[in-house]
Batch of 2 targets.
Target 1
Amino acid sequence: MKVLILGIAGVLGRMVGQELIAAGHEVIGLDRRPWPTAPRGIEVHRLDVRKRGAEEIFRTRRPDAVVHMATVTSLVMRGEERYRLNLDGTRALFEHSERHGVKHVIFVGRHTYYGAGPDSPLFHTEDEPPIGLATFPELADLVAADLYASTALWRMPTLTTTVLRMCYTLGPTGHGTLAGFLKGKRVPTVMGFDPLFQFMHEHDAVDAITTAVRARPRGVFNVAGPQPIPFSFLIRAVGRRPVPVPEPLLDAVIGRFGLPDLPAGALSHLKYPVVIDGSAFRRASGFAHRIDEDRVMREFRDAFPVR
Amino acid sequence: MQLRLPVAPDVRARLERLELPFSRTGVDPFGVSRAHLGSLFTALRALYKSYFTVKAFGTENIPARGRAMLVGNHSGGVAIDAAMVLASMFFELDPPRLAHGMAEKFIAKIPFAGEWAARCGQFTGLPQHATRLLEAERLLMVFPEGARGTAKLYPERNSLVGFGTGFMRLALETRTPIIPFAFLGGGEAIPTILNAYRLGKLLGVPYIPVTPYLLAIPLPVSLEVYYGAPRFFEGTGREDDAVIAGYVDEVKREIAAMIDGGQRRRDGSGPRSLTAGSAR
């Protein structure tokens, strides 16, 4: 099978590309960023999907499946350009796919779609609206991209669409939102709050995406790994020290004193849990995580020891 | 929070026998933490055994494992009723069980309170939580009177206010047996003369109960809790409101009868043949 990966130069994108090559697929990559060390078998185009040349790749290379890993969070890019990248990029991808004979599109989204709030349930199911958006407006473009992608399920019936809402990844590459927050010696928490955090090993995340390529489940699916654990347990297990800060002071200390920076709305994600139920994806694709939470945390700690 | 009470030896022994799927880090899939339960039950133990002297009757009616729903009356202006039911499930049953209460939504917003409630298995009262816990074969504790029930004043302490019907639909849907219970004495422990709703709003809670001695600190009275035989209702949970209301009324009448019986015994006018803690 010929698979086109958008966002292949990212850490997870590279891993998915290599995994698909190893499984005998042909892999084409598209990214605005370079991947100078790309293995010989992977053809990488340094291009924005919204540019004219991108459609040419769809037209001439005619991939069977497209994996969309090119959305960015508010931690990576601020402002309106992110909206355009996430929404126009997703639109271009689906339109090119439909026009040029792609059979399957996988949108790799995030479990933060559901948002966090005092009255949000543990173990979100795919039918829930993104209520938590109210507390974290910086997520709006990603939520919109997720919902936009799922409209392809009825707008483009010739295409099989899979929307994945993946929980945080954690592992020895140190890639991802959660890993970034945990890298320093001290990790700020909101005093008196200790939400559950749900994460999976990056190998399991890669495995979930390649499983979706193979099994082609149609629909919207949460992708979860091992059971969630409280934030403070996680911080200690990776050898860091939680620094509980009273909520009114958080704004003043975040991003200073060696503490990581955060957009204002992210506070709700430090107070309340975002926990998803991944059983529908397990049933539809046969995916099962292989690495338990203890090993995930150990591997991260060993790769990023506190000095 | 790191601050922990030293765990009492018998609490530690009971925790060992608690049949919850704890991970190696001591957390179950819902985030219930063994360490937090140790502190909680050490604190509740003193209240249960020394301060209030709670007598639990009919604990043999609680199944040793598998889903079940404890449904009872509110008694007392703060959650001592829930805390003592929780303690009776932990200290009187063999093996002990953890009762999962359905907490008011405001609790999750209060620093520390929300954290401790969640670590001890007391989740926000959402239907999704109740369904998931029952499907995981847990023991659910429900007070269908809701917040109106805890707001009862001293003269109303042995009465029942209107029952919500959500618990019955849930029980039918998940095929869960209902164990009715009556809680007595909470109204004497916290003799509420009025509820300060405006002050409560300022503090982010529904109300603050006020007693003749002002603060809602419970008095060391004896408390009693009666567990009735499990009731199993047949259905799907999609019945008409009238049908559901009929079932709810049956449960309510049963609880009212247990409150009456218990009250006569407390007043010394009824039979005294029942023995407390008969499950042991």
Target 2
Amino acid sequence: MYPLIFRITSRYLLPIFLLFSLIVLYQGHNAPGGGFIGGLLAATAFIMSALAYGGKTARKKLKFNPATLVMLGLLTAVFSGILSLLKGDPFLTGLWIHIHLPLIGELHLGTPLLFDLGIFLTVIGITLWISFGLLEENE
Amino acid sequence: MMPELIFPLLIPLLTGILLFMSRKYLRVQTSLSLAGSLIFLASSLILLFTVLEKDIITLQLGNWPAPFGITLVCDLLSAIMLVLSAIITLVIVIYSLLTVDDSRKKYGYFSLIFMLMFGISGSFLTGDLFNLYVWFEVMLMASFVLMVLGGERAQLEGAVKYVSLNLIGSFIFLSGVGILYGKMGTLNMADLAAKLSLEPGSALVSSSAMLFLVAFSIKAAAFPFYFWLPASYHTPPAAVSALFAGLLTKVGVYALIRIFTLIFIQDIASTHQIILVIAGLTMIFGVLGAASQFEVRRILSFHIISQIGYMLMGLGLFTSLALAGSIFYIMHHIIVKTNLFLTAGVIQLFHGSSDLKKTGGLFRKSPLLAFTFLIPALSLAGIPPLSGFWAKFTLIKAGLDLNSMWIVVTALLVSLVTLYSMTKIWSEAFWKPHSGNSGITSEVSTPRWKLNIAGFGPMIFLLTITLIIGLFSEPFFQLAFRTAEQLLHPEYYIDAVLRK
């Protein structure tokens, strides 16, 4: 039913796509990239897997219900704004920590990244929610 | 800088997310949405009292200064609108326990209500035109889903008209935003107002003013863009149509008042004259539409339109008395109109239909229902000493002061026809003996206590507010006057936003 070459390729491509989506997510704040694009990339990986193996298997690989991912993403994004509220700054003010790691170098972690992570999860969730729904209608 | 300005946005958003996560558990849904709406009401009341004390308060999200970052502004108008929306949310959440079925709730009905409120509070609080567009979209998306949730045939038919007209409205709105940005290089409302006051009158600015007028008239259901409203508002469950009827079009009116008192005030002689003409036509066409209808919720829908006319009349006359009249009218209208839609829902519950030909005998069956209908209905028609009388009286007084006789005559005549429609509902649904052969007088299947608490509770609550606004109108008038004064002095708004 599903072509063999596509199945095997997609199995190897899935982790690469996911890794790449995380890189895009991380570099997002100051360079091209970010939660939205990263999320789309990650969603593409699962859609490819769904095309190769069918919606059910892809859902199993995702492990989360897409709707849950959307809600988790929204909560993460809101939480990143509330953090600055707790510090007494206006909602969504950026808070940063700079960590110096041996091999990797300077690591900038901050609430904008957390916000982006929220978008990342929301975009994966909503894209897969829609596309799994459409795919399974044909199965 | 007021960090608490964010709460009326955060509370509906968080409640909405939590409600969606727990959508399968109906008990959790009930308590969570009740708690959410109470906290929402509390936060808006706090905001209103803060604004009463400190005039206009602002919040720069992310601490980016005004023309660059996202600005939230709360003046008296926004605060009043927020408090009204919070009251309506509370009422609708309680009423939904009676009139919305479990399958809709399991699809996330309550969550959508709060997402809608998130969009509505955002529209009231934003200080930026593009953000206003985004908030409108948030609100519309939630309302689209609420409109079709349940998937009944009539609902889908109404939704097609509702969605397509509103999308066209958004498109025109966005075009206006684009042209204005191209001309002025900013979309922050205070910054725009400041820049436009230095550089008056230009063709491009007037053209985008007209685009905004059309876009918001579509949202507010003003003439000639009102036809989507009566085609769609009677189709969803009673609680949803009451919420839409009470709040959604008023967001359009709010947006009109905001931009035509703050930004586009260079050419009052022409722009506000156009608004006044639209107001008159909206009144007439709305009320004539209502006179020709025989279904309770459709009659009421047409009356929303005619009343939008009154609200715009104050804006068109553009004196402090007239604007105060508009604001008072909005306060009165949101409460009364929601109450009437709630009554219509209970009529439907009793008879299985709200078609006036199939109803009757309700006065004997439930005198309480007759009472909760009569007071808002008379108030809507403007019978003294109820709230509607004071609202109309102020507007007509403002019209007489300016000697614009035609709008005064129109307003008075329309009021008379409104009374006719209300007596029609009264005599057909309440006084006329019920014709037994239609066979729909099934006994209400819902338990009596549920009807009393979730059905009559909200209606009596709103009724009390109507009576308070009518009988003790002095403080409400003062509030409306202060708001109008604030609106007529845009420099307060500009200073509050642009000062550091």
